[in-house]
Amino acid sequence: MGKGPDTSHIDVRYVADLARLELSDDEIKRYEEQLGDVLHYVDQLGEVDVSGVDPTAHAMPLTNVMRDDRESPGIQRDDVLSNAPASLEGGLIRVPAVIDGEEGA
Amino acid sequence: MAVSAGTTNHETFIRKTTIHKTFKEQEGDSHAMTGALHGYEAIIGLEVHIQVRTSTKLFCGCPNRFGGEPNTRVCPVCMGYPGVLPVLNREAVRKTLGAGLMCDCTINTYSKFDRKNYFYPDMPKNYQISQYDLPFCRGGTMPVSGVGLSGGEMQSKGIGITRIHLEEDVAKSTHFGSYSGIDFNRAGIPLMEIVSEPDMRTPDEAYAYLTGLKQIMQYAEISDCDMEKGQLRCDVNVSVRPVDQTAFGEKIEIKNLNSFRAVHRALEYEIDRQISDLREGASLRQETRRWDDALGMTAVMRVKESAHDYRYFPEPDLMPLEIGTDWRNEIQDSLPERPGVRRDRFVAHYRITPYDADVLTQDKLLADYFERAVAKGATPKTVANWMQTELLRELSDSAQGIAESPVAPEALAELVALIEDKTISGKIAKDVFHIMFATGKAPSVIVEEKGLKQVSDDAEIGVFVDRALAENPAVVEDYRTGNKKSLQFLMGQVMKFSRGKANPQSANRLLKERLEASEG
């Protein structure tokens, strides 16, 4: 999964770039320390002996939670648009220009 | 990853102008298509997105239907409002597993969903729920064979399917230059991503793979695969390399492919372009190009930047899935016979030609129709002929599908029986079929009403034969002096007098008998 953080160091500039955040040098230094602390805290999990535990994708011991394919009511468009920063005639939600061809990341 | 589909006129306009500019900027790019491979081969891989046909979206109860006024088929879940939770649609999972089984995939017994994080307004949550390392299906095959779109024979081979996973479709974006508009009706519709191995070598193979995929999805009622509605979208990866080289060349991704034919054309163009560039000493770079169907060429869209980092992680709002043998078998049992298997069975069991079998199994309903008619006792070869000529022509002329055919398979079987027991001639049968199609009446009723019954009685036919001989002494003389072709004219006369009802074999025999009797 790309160059993710290792346990000793976090590349704040890279993470900020992925989150589209512009940070000052001071902020970068501060977050480096803070996020480093968080990582060290989480690192304690590495000390737990999991040799007898099966890997799982979820903490809850539940699988196959599904619903029937039946329609349920949605919400009115006026409400949808009132929750959007801006809209266009015809009911589209207006957003800043996005680069053509970048759809779906 | 989702691809965009459907463009407004405005959007198309913007795209066209952009491409035009790009084209002008790199006029060195243009070249004449030659189609020659010059010792190179193409490596093609396809990424196909197919919307699953369900009543509702993947994680909420909003309708899964095409179109609708913008932002009217939405709810707090597919709008990504705070505090809501997705609940998985069982039918979408069932159909995705069915798609995998139809393609000979292995079904993962343990599967889960993951978050794919990215910044783009087509997903209101800033992530798309997709599947990363444990997709529902992996390792399948799609067989291709027969005559390709370009007319050449393809070598029979299996195209590998790497994986099939399920994800939510994204919203539709419309670009207006300085801003964009978003319609979330499509956001959350169940979408399968089917990734092929880089196993295809020619545009024909890519076309056949896509056709096969679509056919299977339609057979198993997994998707309608209507490209105009964005139900099937396709991205192509293509590179070229010298045939004796094992390493892949620089991979080019092609987007904006709105039909299978466009895929075929774009590949022909792109393979040719890449080979020409390499032969001229230019080097290729990894990039994304856009196909312009009107210009018939691709143009650079973007050069591959650093690899995307989507920060995938397991979706905490959804529980993992365990796909047991029971459920898998139940789905397997509900699936129809695969088109290829059915085609082979038609050839072996009904003794029709591979070509006929291929045509009849293109569409499941057409194949069903054939088998229903044959089940009524009609000769398979005759049914196959009638379907491919009269039935398909009438359907096409009236712009109807086989499902709407006014002539039921049982009625066609009855018509074939009337021909075979010589109640009517094949020629009259065509007129009867036309009336059947127009009125929905049974063939026997039409034959009765119109008095079309074939005359096989020698005494009755003899009257027409005698008249033909009596009225055409010159032709008779001609025949006797050795011009045996004159018999055809006399036959025509007999058929005319009998208004097409005389049994042709009997008429022919009687004519010959009389001509030769008086000769001696």
Summarize the structure.
The complex is a heterodimer of chains A (105) and B (520). Chain A has 105 residues and is mostly helical. Helices cover 30% and strands 6% of the residues of chain A.
Keywords summarizing the entry:
heterodimer; A: 105 residues; 3 helices; flat; B: 520 residues; alpha+beta; Arc Repressor Mutant, subunit A; 3 domains; 9-stranded mixed β-sheet
Order of helices and strands of chain A: HHEHE
**Helix share bin of chain B:** 40-55%
Low-confidence stretches of chain A: 1-5
Helix content of chain A: 25-40%
The tally of helices of chain A reads: 3
Into how many domains do the coordinates of chain B divide?
3
Query: Which segments of chain B are poorly predicted (pLDDT under 50) over 5 or more consecutive residues?
Result: 1-30
Largest interface, C-beta within 8 A: A-B, 44 and 73 residues
Count of helical regions of chain B:
16
Separation, N- and C-terminal Cα atoms of chain A = 16 Å
DSSP strand (E) fraction of chain A? 5-15%
The count of DSSP E runs of length 2 or more, i.e. the number of strands of chain B, is 17
Question: What is the rounded distance between the termini of chain B?
Answer: 87 Å
Query: Rg of chain A to the nearest angstrom?
Result: 22 Å
Helical/strand content category of chain A: mainly alpha
Strand order within the widest sheet of chain B?
3-7-8-11-1-12-13-14-15
Structural class of chain B: alpha+beta
What would the principal axes of the Cα set say about the shape of chain A?
A: flat
CA radius of gyration of chain B is 31 Å
The shape of chain B, in one word, is elongated
Largest sheet composition of chain A? none
What does this structure look like?
The complex is a heterodimer of chains A (105) and B (520). Chain A has helices at 12-18, 25-43, 77-82; strands at residues 66-67, 93-96. Chain A is flat and about 55 Å long. Chain A has a domain at 12-45. Chain A has 3 helices and 2 strands; from the N terminus they run ααβαβ. Chain B has 3 domains: 9-322, no CATH class; 337-450, no CATH class; 458-519, Arc Repressor Mutant, subunit A (Orthogonal Bundle). Chain B has helices at residues 9-25, 90-102, 203-219, 260-279, 325-334, 339-350, 354-361, 364-375, 380-397, 409-420, 426-439, 443-450, 458-471, 473-480, 486-497, 504-519; strands spanning 40-51, 88-89, 106-107, 110-111, 114-117, 127-130, 137-147, 153-168, 172-175, 179-183, 190-196, 232-242, 252-257, 287-292, 297-303, 313-314, 321-322. In chain B, strand 14 and strand 15 form a beta hairpin. In chain B, helix 7 (354-361) packs across helix 9. The longest helix of chain B is centred in the middle third of the chain and has 20 residues, at 260-279. Strand 2 (93-96) of chain A pairs antiparallel with strand 10 (179-183) of chain B.
